[in-house]
Please model this.
Amino acid sequence: MRALILGTVLAALAASPAFAEFTLASPDVKSGSPMALAQVLNTQGCTGQNISPALTWAGEPQGTRSFAVTMVDTDAQNGSGWWHWIVLDIPAGVHGLPAGAGSEPSTGLPAGARQGNTSFGFAHYGGPCPPAGVHAHHYEITVYALKVPALPIEAAGPGPALASQLASDALATAKIVGRYGR
Model:
């Protein structure tokens, strides 16, 4: 009986607007599908256009004070993934980024937002370009709804330190995973 009541309460809460699902969408990247050449790196043997994808998100939890976006190649053989894009301190009222927002220099980022250093060593979007002849890699694009208005400056670098900071400040996450191989 208790399980039935608990299940009914949880179902009612999940259906209420206060518990809307946090979602991420892109017209440029479809989860599970190959990424277009528009998003692929244009160096290191790859011949893409290196344009960061357009993204939109909705349904963030109450108390969200900012957002962050990352794109990580989870198949990279370095133990912590290859960080392709980091955008931090996106104001809570912003619910998307236009295509090309990650360019250098970026004029498409909202006021107050900043890009962090990627595994490439630069602070702008770097598209997929896995080694030739290996399986298609997975590129996890994640938006984080954060309980803080801004992350510390030292959190702007790629890897475990940033992942830890994002995890500790996240109220919710939403993701899409594109693939690319050559």
DSSP finds two helices and eight strands in the chain. Confidence is low (pLDDT under 50) at residues 1-17. The longest helix spans residues 2-15. The radius of gyration is 17 Å.
